[in-house]
Amino acid sequence: MAVLEIIKLGHPTLAKKAAPIQHIDEEIVEIAQNMIETMHAAPGLGLSAPQVDVSRRLITVDLSIGEKKEDLIVLINPELVHQEGRVVREEGCLSVPEVYEKIGRPQKIIIKGLDLAGKEKKIEAIDLLARVFCHEIDHLNGRLFIDGLSSLKRNLIKKRFKKKAESSKR
Ligand code: NI
Question: What angle do CA 118, 122, 61 make, to 5 degrees?
């Protein structure tokens, strides 16, 4: 297993719609394992494949950040099948470090997808877990949490990241 590089705001893969996974082969299993390692090392509560520059529909979530095995969830081709309520809370993203903004998300969701064995999973989630799932699914659709902000705020953040990327190239 390996810790992968997490790409940052401004990278084109983050703005792309990720492709569905047709076959769960060795490569997909390896990407998932590396994503878990990367998510735990970051540390983060969730990670999507596009964030490690793999434009496929695969997410990992672990609210315990490696503490509880039963909290670790890997979902392939995740789909939101139900949502209700709305909670506004501060949110961040490993691809947009040091930025935390209040974002509205459903309070309760039902999500379905496949696990690494190809078995169909249906998960009911509330509050923080629902938030993380919605955040990661957004990544698969090329959407970042800051895309819900006003364009003024969003452009300010984007400018800041552009400057950062340019100065790190020098
Ligand atoms: Ni994120």
Answer: 80
- pLDDT, one tens digit per residue, over 17-41 is 999 999 999 999 999 999 999 999 9
Which of 26, 120, 136, 166 is an active site residue? 136
State pTM to two decimals.
Answer: 0.95
Domain contains 6: no
Q: Is residue 125 part of a domain?
A: yes
Domain with 149, as residue range(s), is 12-169
Judge whether residue 61 has pLDDT over 70. yes
CATH number at residue 28: 3.90.45.10
Q: pLDDT per residue over 38-53, tens digit each? A: 999 999 999 999 999 9
170 alpha carbon – ligand 1 mean position (Å) = 27
Asked if residue 117 is part of any domain, the answer here is yes
Domain assignment present for residue 5? The answer is no
Active site includes 101? no
